[in-house]
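Researcher: Please generate the 3D structure of the following complex. Treat every line as part of one assembly.
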Amino acid sequence: MHNYEAYFLDYHEGNLSLDLIKELMEFLSRHPELREEFESFEPVTLQDVEEVTYEGKDALKKQSAGVNPANFDELAVEYVEGILSVDKQETLKVFIAQNPHYKKELELYTKTKLVPGNAIVFEDKASLKKGTKKPVTWYYWSAAASVAIIVGAYFVFNRSEVPAVKPIVQHILVKDGNTVADQTVKTIDTATTSKNALTVLPIHKVTDNQTIVSVDHNKQSKNEKTILPIPTKDSIQTVIKETPGNNKIEPVKKFPPVPALPEDSVRVAQNNHAPDTSCVGQPLIIVRDIQPEEKKSKFLVGLATLTCKGLHKVTGQHVELEKQYDSDTTNIVAYQLDLGNKKFAFPVKE
Amino acid sequence: MDMYADNLYRFILKSVKDTDKAKDIVQDTYEKLWLKVSDVTSTNAKSYMFTTAYRTMIDQFRRDGKQERMEDSHLYLHSHNKSYSDLKEILNDAVSKLPEIQRSVIMLRDYEGYDYDAIGEITGLNESQVKVYIFRARKFLKNYIGSIEAVI
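Model: Done. Output below.
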């Protein structure tokens, strides 16, 4: 009983004598539960398991002049290509008449012919004229080096300058303890600015595309109060546009007047103090220091950004200088040079 | 020369699928043409430009690491769930799914009307290879159109 598998195998391989076969059959009649296992020993060869066939045998045979299923596709393509001889075209028609289901196949092949349309047009044909050469690539790669120098210069200057106080007035709505800079009006009150700070730069953070927008402004006399709305997320695209040809961003239309805020609704925090979270839902004026190098860095960073755009356009490589903001204070905390597969971060010193 | 700009742009755009890159390749091609203008005759200018543009595009693919396997196209046969309004749309979609070399040869054949020999010169293939790629492309397009029509 313990070695019946060996007998099963020998039986199927033809290695048992007649006596042993007789004995095995008697054994199976006494143990019918083993019948299924016995039959499973029928020889299985790799050939039974793996049937690999070459489907294109017909195509290997010497081709007859006629059309057959094996060469139909080839002749159909030649027909569409317009290189099928007249004789073969006739033969093809006869074949299709005899095998109607191939008619649909031929129709489908005729539909594969591409027809040019007028939808795709190269618009800037003037740029293709002789003499309107794009600067060569080496120029842009040398410009790439200049990006690094410009960014580097910024950080050198950033470290060497002694901060001087020039106030900026920023109007922020405090909502659930978080500052939301683009959901309220902005009040510029020059009475709170220093004597020399005639130029007040309201800074607005656009959270959806991470752009800092400098709103154009007029010099203001002391005690003059100007009220400007901060564009909302919905209106920002219609109010602000980027001037073609340079990196200056300016408003495309004047902001509509908004009512002045009641004095008792305005609270003031000075010198980068955090907004008072107790006044949830209340407008808040924050007077914070502008470091003098901020203006200088703005020029350098603008130059670096412009250079990156030029590099991206010509080389096709991803080259971008990104600003990274502190989510609470909206201050720039770092600049990141993004080269697609590599990123270099330059943190801004506090 | 302006008359070739649209053809060249269409040929490149359908492969690179990026308007800026396609424009750059067209501009590069014209710049190279102006440099070689004394060697290029009016009869072979178009061929020269397509050859230059095609090779620039291939270089760009290599730089970008964009390599398509020949078998990839077959995967798309069973993965279309888009709705189409006409045959042209189906065909455009099918062409975009062809392997790069098949797409190039079939566009040169149908859009530009080049014969197999000229296509071979532009793409660096011999005539037989061009014929095979066109055959494969048409068969793929035929099957693609057929499978869409079957579900519509």
